[in-house]
Amino acid sequence: MSTLQPIIHVLQHSSDDVMKQFFEYESLIWIDWREDEGDIIHYFNGQLSESH
User: Fold this and answer.
1) Structural domain boundaries enclosing 13
2) Residue 52 domain-assigned?
3) What's the whole-number mean pLDDT along residues 15-24?
4) Residues 7-33: what's their mean pLDDT?
5) Among 1, 35, 36, 37, which residue's Cβ finds the most Cβ atoms within 10 Å?
6) Does the model's pTM come out above 0.85?
7) Distance CA 28, CA 31 (A)
8) Cα-based angle 28, 46, 17 (whole degrees, multiple of 5)
9) What CA–CA distance (Å, rounded) separates 45 from 39?
10) Nearest-angstrom CA–CA distance, 33 and 4
11) Closest to 9 (Cα-Cα) out of 19, 24, 27, 29
12) How many domains, in total, are found in the chain?
């Protein structure tokens, strides 16, 4: 599944159930503008797969 599919689905079918599923999607990274820049790097690094 493309990482854009959940976003496209929410835009096409806006309902409470769809919104709940969207916000539970693991690929989303919520960033608070008050957070330290180093924390943001850790959030993205946590989403990347490790190469062996």
Assistant:
1) 5-47
2) no
3) 77
4) 77
5) 35
6) no
7) 10
8) 25
9) 10
10) 23
11) 19
12) 1
